Structure formats: structure tokens, C-alpha cells
Amino acid sequence: MALVCKGLLSVAKRGLSSQRPFCNRPSSSSNPLLNRLLQLPSSLIKTTLNSDDRFAQKSSNFSWDALAAGLPSFPSEKAQLVLEWKLEKMLKENERDYDQYLNLLSLCSKVRNVSLAMHVFTSMEVHGIKPATPVFNSLINACFSSKDAITALSLFEIMQSSEDYKPNAETYEAFIIGFSSLGNAVAMKSWYSAKKAVGYCAKLQTYESLISGCIKSSDFDGAEKFYEEMMSIGIMPNEPILENVVEGFCRQRKLNQVKEFLKSFLDVGQEISLKMAEKIVRLYSEHGKVDEMEELLSTVVESGQVVEVLLQVYSGIIRMYAMLNRLDDVEYCVGRMFKQGLSFRCSDDLEKVICCYLRKEAYDRLEIFLEHIKGSHKLTKSTYNLLVAGYRRAGLSEKLDLLVKEMELAGIIPS
């Protein structure tokens, strides 16, 4: 992608740097009813909802919006029962609000239930609520969420032959997104061409789907074409697009392009996402690029990346040095990490370091290392067992006895 870095920089100067840096958004507060429904057997879902709904007539504790927001985390059977209950309630009360049904169709898509979406649609017709283009678009989304492209295409044919619910820009977008999610780049591109042919412009979501679909199907040239097209018309790339660009470079093993893109990204004051860091660290690790990993670590430290990204890079470089038995470099890197107030990301990282000490037969240095980390990292049973096996092989009976006593004090039974 020759124009990626240049394009990112030019678009960034027009406003990307003013955007909020990428970060994890806080999760919504827990909903007591939602948590209760998750614990109940399916047979009690509708009864419980009826009871809470009646109580809601006298209080404001029942929030359908809050419950609906949590539905994607439900088991499919329970999610269907909740939506069935809502539809039955709407029909019983002779609900005529078109948006209510449209919202219900959208929820069917989110929980991947196309059969229930069709039931909502037919219920609307039976009750004299005329369908419109957004309803058909929601049905198409529900079809793709269930990987049912054939029904989605049938719905499009119905729309084309109608007078009241003709396809619109969002209809074409639904097919682009849908085929992208299925990894069908050929169909996705055809629908993009069709969208342009009828006069609709591409938007950020369009390019996100196009680039994602191309990367999924290993069509890297296609991803390059769409990225450069997006940049040429001044659309700012979002985080998923940038992550896909990085993935494309990594899968093609284009290390220089990864470095250049990373620099252009950081030059406009943006942050590296955790997914980007994971992909780059994996690429460098697979190819044994120690110097590149060190350079990445320096870049991440100097640019003030979030702790999760910093730990990801530290983890990668420490593991690499440990596998290469470069104990001095392991200790130096661990020391830098500790000076920044960080500790090991997981027990597996720690165990890779311990294995390096054991292979180098540096038992005294290992003891010093273990004493240093005990204040910030609790040893797991697998870590203790690794030490036991290492001391036993080396015939270090005194160290072994002390370690076993330590395990007993921690309530861990040696294997």
C-alpha cells in the first residue's frame, strides 16, 4: 500500500488529530433484571417479565431500553423469549408505533434470529402496519446476521418490484456489510459497484466493510485500492480500518511498511490499539526481529501509549530474549518494565523467563529475580511446579526443600 502512510498523514492534518485517541469505552452499568433473567430457567423468562412489567406501572425500575441493550449477551433461547414477550405485549396493547417494530427487528438482527424477525414482519402486516424500506433493510441485516444471503437477495427482489419500499443507500450498504462479514469479496465488490451505479456515495462504514472483506479473503490489492480511494476523497480512517491495514501488512510480512505506517500514525498524535500491537508483536516474534522489537518498544515508551499496549510489547520482547537464551537482555528489559511500575502480563510470560534462567543454570540469579517479583506477582501452581522440576533436575535439594515449604505455606500441593 504505497499511498497508505502519505494518505494517513494528509487526512490527519485535516482533522484526525483533533479526534479523541483510541481507548476502551467504559461498559454500561449492570442491570438487575438482566442479571436475574440470565440466572433463571427459560421457562420462567416470560412470567418474570410480566411480573416486573406490572410492577413498573407503579415504579420506574423496569427499563426496556436497558434490557434490550444487554440482549446480545444472552443465550439465543433466552434472547428469543425476551423478544417474543415484547412482541406479544405490543400486539396485545395494539401498538401502532412503527419505530417500535423497527427497533424490535433491529434487535432480532443483533441476536442473529432471522425467523423471529420474519415473525415480527408478518405480525406488522396482520395488524395493518405497512412496511417501508427501513423494515426491509432490517430484515436483510437479520438475514446476513444468520448467514442467510439467499433470503436477503429475495427480499431485495421484492423491494425492486415494489412502489412503496424501493431500495435506498442503506439497502446497498446492508449487502456490502453482509457479504463482507461472510468473507465474499466478489459479491461485496459487486454490491459496491451497484451502489455507485445508482448514484449513492460511499461513506466511512462502506470503506470499513470493503477493506475488512478484502483482508478476510486475502485480497490485499483490493484493500489497497479501497484504502487509497477513501483517502483520496478525504474520509478519515477509523480504528477498525487502521487495524485491518496493519493486519494486511503483517500477513504479507511487509515489515518495512509496518514500521512506516506506525510512524505516520504516531506522527499525528494517535495511539496504537491493542489489536495493532498484538499483530505487530506477533509478526516480529515469528521472524525473530529482535532489533525491530526493541525499536517498537522505544517508540511505544516515547509516545506514551496506554499500559495495555506497553505490556503487550514488553511481553513480546521479553519472550523473544528468553527463547534466545539472552538472559542479560531479559533482565535488562524486565528491569525497564519494573521501573515503569509494570509487572508481568501473565504467568506464561513469567514462566518463559524462569525457563531461561534454568536453561542457563543461573540459579542464584533466579533466586534474586524471584525475590524481586514476589511483591508484585503471585506465583501460580504451574510456576511453582516448573521451579520444582528445575531444581530437582539440577539436584538442588536445599533450594527444593525451601520451595516446597513455601508452596505449603501458600496452600499449594506440589505435583
TrEMBL record:
PPR repeats lie at residues 97-131, 203-237, 380-414. Residues 97-275 form the PROP1-like PPR domain. It comes from the Eukaryota. Keywords: Repeat. GO terms for molecular function: mRNA binding. Gene3D superfamilies: Tetratricopeptide repeat domain. The keyword NAD does not apply. InterPro entries: PPR5-like, PPR_rpt, PROP1-like_PPR_dom, TPR-like_helical_dom_sf. Pfam families: PPR, PPR_long. PROSITE patterns: PPR. Belongs to the PPR family. P subfamily. This is PROP1-like PPR domain-containing protein.
